[in-house]
């Protein structure tokens, strides 16, 4: 039978092109996602500034809340307590241990400052001059004796270059005393480099070091994560993106490959009937179909691996440029992504071949001839079972989204529901296609008259073939519409929740930080009613009853103490922010009511760098569900961030006052400070959502392109298989133009049915999601997105039908077809 399969492929190559193309593109996409997943898991960062020590010790970047099962990630650098350094040095096998202070120190050529004693961790070597003393600095380039001004904590500070050292660029080294004064938290090193004596049991030393406290001991390539802590924070996001998109891409690929292979087998029912009529056994038919599938699939998998390599690297580069992945991480794509992509493609092809072979092998020859002529049979109990299971899953997720989830969390159930609805509709495609066709047939027939009646009768008689053409259109419209409008709705809802209480008229921003002295100067500007530092971070509420916050952490906003005319973006319901100093907090009213922690009570929090503090509640405020934050003093939040900087300052003008010129003049006197309007603050607040939206747009775009390949493959294949029908129509008196008009009407119906079903699938996801996120069941977003998706579906459908039909109609109707 394999010899027969080879001959079949030779003479019916066009029938398997759709499957071949689907496998190539599917393998590439799944392989690319596998590469992103492997890159996130490995997170290989080659150490540079910390390349010399055997081990690099950092603080543990997670916190396990009392009573919680999962640890909360800590976004800020935790650091290592200074008092641990003597104990580390006394550990058996350790020859030296050096603590590293790291702080922001900005010049045109530098971004970070360190203590000079940590220079040996690179190691740096003096190429000129001498080690720095008080008031001096060593940099990678410059002249000894030259004055150099750094922006440290928002303040300009001038140092004298005492020497230059060769090593990684962008770092400046100050005397140990100056570094201790400049760093915001001198009680913690950013990391500690440990050198171990040659021949020492490294595993034994590692175990001893880990027992000293909540430390992470990194060796080898993992030392780079200590040097670039942002790479670790991006790790989870990259894994989540690769996992979710890879799962969707894998399921889509398996469905598309299965549908194209099943369609190819469906078009050959007459051939299988002939084989059965001359004595071929069901087992031989099954082996032939399975052999054909493997002969098509295996070369396609090999070919798909090549673009998969470049696609994975391209996606990682794009994610790095948009802040989703760390650009210092090395892209990794080993044999596991290859196996995942190839395995998913082969599994889809083999599964589809077995399903198609089961039907073709069991059918009787006479029944097969009838089935081939009209292709009426589609129903099976297996298909019904899995179709109802998928629809039931979609309904369950819809109910959970509408009743349990709130705010941004609604996306975790609304997103998977799209796939459930789409798969359920696709498995029961002929039923849904007939139902929607009954709705569209009358207006289309009224507008197209004779051609419409002929097209509708054709489609009604060929309901299974119609469903095969409609399903890819439904997938493209449903999945893309749901995912894109979920992002636009969530970004809009987050902006609305933030701006509803935003009372600032202007914002001062600086990447180098804003000093407390500048804040006093802003407050003294005529017309300024209020000014406050503004700092954002994440923390964890250490209370089992800490609703509405969970293991993902609690967003923390730092502002200064202020009165009723202040700039804090909150609507107070009890208490006041005038006492927001020291260890105090303002909490959402929902949290206070559920935990009994109102004004005057105490809460325990772990801040972003792992520091646990006990806070007194001085106020409660109203907050949209799902967008709650905790308000703390700005100085407290800034002191427990990685760089310790205040990068934004909110300013509110007195009624009728124009403070922008005065603020611009004040900003011009401070290097790096800029004046922006409140839109800059809103953009910062939704920055993560905008990045997530961009990622979703890019990945959904790839899925749309892949489903577009399926649309083209299916419709071209279906149209070419109808050449005998077109010839018969022309022999009975129809002209080429009349046949094309009939096909145009059919394409219109296919487009309308596909868009209708895709829209229904998208709405089943979007309506509950939007009602929980924004309070309105109508999704938010520009209408052109939906129009563009519908237009693209129409162009693909018409082009994939009319172009091959036009080519087929160029031949004489009496000319025999080599594939019929």
From TrEMBL:
It is found in: Cell membrane. Keywords: Cell membrane, Membrane, Transmembrane, Transmembrane helix. Belongs to the ABC-4 integral membrane protein family. It is a multi-pass membrane protein. Pfam families: FtsX (PF02687). This is ABC transporter permease. The chain crosses the membrane at residues 237-264, 293-315, 335-357, 378-401, 421-442, 463-486, 694-716, 749-771, 783-803. Coiled coil: none annotated. PANTHER family: ABC TRANSPORTER PERMEASE YTRF, MEMBRANE COMPONENT OF TRANSPORTER-RELATED. InterPro entries: ABC3_permease_C (IPR003838), Macrolide_Exporter_MacB (IPR050250). Residues 244-364, 698-813 form the ABC3 transporter permease C-terminal domain. It comes from Kribbella karoonensis.
